[in-house]
């Protein structure tokens, strides 16, 4: 690991700990990266390989303006975007600069920006997130040297995101709310919202995440609605899904967009609810580095199957099942089965 990677890794490890406000994390990440890649705004999006990039699972922001984010979001769906994160993820070097084409350049310029360097955070296990860096209007665009320096930081950023998730309390720290629904109209504006969804959005707006942008919750809802429209026309596109761990919102959370017609031109329902059981299992296993064999044991345990029965179902010895459980306890920090299951049922 280079000295730059060492330094960034140390600085991020110091801030990626429970209780640090989201805005403070965003500012600290920006400050850590600035000596290596100069920028005026930063977003760091975390996800897991199972959830996929899409809208990510949680994020940290510093310096981004709401209207720029909104303009880029609608430009992406109206005009297309050659450097969409999902497209970048398939490249040998998963990065690109948004704002090189004339239309995108006009969007950035209208909001006082020049361009955005986008770097997908990928390792041998899959995609863990996205780093976005913006330079203000009048500054030189990002070049290959900037991209190369940013690429060196990928291991440190992936480690920081995983640390953020795995050092947080395993069990939920806030109560579950009833599932809620937001209806997004054909004009992509919210036109109806249940009381339950309103309560979720109040939580997501930042009352439990000091320093998080207040506009982020509505932006995620709009983005999921747009993803749902696209997914209804192209099932191979990104799933309109967010699966967020407790480090972000105090408990596992799922948001999913569902188009109410076949062609995605009408209303879209965005469902917000606490995630439990199978909904969160794959992402949970990603974050805590649970192996496929351990996952099979954990999946049955989540269904209420006792270890002796798990051994029979999987054709393993009870000793082997218990070894897998011990490994899961060690990786998650759980003190036993009850504490581990609280993460899935709390």
Key traits:
single chain; 346 residues; alpha+beta; Beta-Lactamase; Arc Repressor Mutant, subunit A; 5-stranded antiparallel sheet; 10 strands; 18% strand
Question: How are the secondary structure elements laid out?
Answer:
Layout: H1 3-15, H2 22-33, E1 41-46, E2 58-62, H3 66-79, H4 85-88, E3 95-98, H5 102-110, E4 113-123, E5 126-136, H6 144-152, H7 154-166, E6 180-184, E7 190-193, H8 195-207, H9 216-233, E8 241-244, H10 246-249, E9 253-259, E10 268-274, H11 278-287, H12 292-302, H13 307-314, H14 318-332, H15 337-345
Antiparallel strand pairs: 1-2, 1-5, 3-4, 4-5, 6-7, 6-10, 8-9, 9-10
CA distance, first residue to last residue: 40 Å
| Major β-sheet annotation | 5 strands, antiparallel
- The SS-based structural class is alpha+beta
SSE arrangement, N to C? HHEEHHEHEEHHEEHHEHEEHHHHH
Classified by CATH, the class of the largest domain is: Alpha Beta
**Annotation field: number of helices:** 15
The tally of structural domains comes to 3
Q: Do you know the CATH topology of the largest domain?
A: Beta-Lactamase
Strand content: 15-25%
Can you tell me the overall shape? globular
Query: What is the CATH superfamily label of the largest domain?
Result: PHY domain
Number of strands: 10
Rounded to the nearest angstrom, the radius of gyration is 21 Å
Helical residues, percent: 40-55%
The largest sheet has its strands arranged as 2-1-5-4-3
């Amino acid at each position: 690991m280079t000295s730059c990677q060492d330094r960034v890794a140390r600085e991020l490890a110091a801030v990626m700990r429970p209780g640090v406000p989201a805005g403070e994390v965003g500012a600290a990440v920006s400050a850590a990266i600035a000596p290596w890649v100069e920028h005026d705004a930063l977003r760091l999006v975390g996800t897991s390989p199972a959830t996929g990039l899409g809208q990510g699972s949680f994020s940290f922001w510093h310096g981004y303006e709401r209207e720029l984010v909104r303009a880029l979001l609608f430009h992406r769906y109206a005009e297309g975007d050659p450097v969409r994160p999902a497209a970048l993820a398939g490249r040998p070097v998963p990065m690109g600069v948004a704002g090189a084409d004339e239309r995108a350049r006009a969007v950035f310029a209208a909001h006082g920006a020049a361009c955005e360097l986008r770097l997908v955070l990928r390792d041998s296990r899959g995609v863990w997130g996205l780093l976005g860096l913006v330079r203000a209007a009048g500054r030189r665009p990002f070049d290959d040297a900037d991209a190369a320096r940013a690429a060196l930081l990928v291991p440190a950023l992936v480690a920081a995101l995983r640390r953020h998730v795995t050092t947080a309390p395993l069990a939920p720290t806030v109560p579950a709310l009833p599932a809620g629904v937001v209806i997004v109209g054909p004009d992509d504006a919210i036109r109806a919202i249940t009381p339950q969804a309103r309560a979720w959005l109040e939580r997501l707006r930042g009352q439990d995440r000091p320093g998080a942008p207040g506009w982020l919750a509505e932006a995620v809802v709009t983005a999921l609605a747009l993803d749902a429209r696209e997914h209804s026309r192209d099932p191979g596109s990104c799933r309109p899904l967010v699966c967020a761990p407790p480090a972000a919102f105090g408990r596992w959370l799922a948001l999913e967009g569902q188009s109410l017609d076949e062609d995605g031109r009408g209303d879209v329902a965005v469902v917000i609810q606490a995630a439990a059981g199978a909904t969160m299992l794959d992402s949970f296993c990603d974050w805590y580095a649970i192996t496929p064999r351990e996952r099979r044991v954990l999946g049955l345990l989540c269904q209420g199957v006792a270890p002796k029965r798990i051994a029979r179902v999987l054709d393993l010895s009870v000793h082997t099942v218990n070894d897998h459980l011990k490994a899961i306890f060690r990786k998650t920090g759980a003190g036993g089965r009850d504490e581990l299951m609280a993460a899935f049922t709390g």
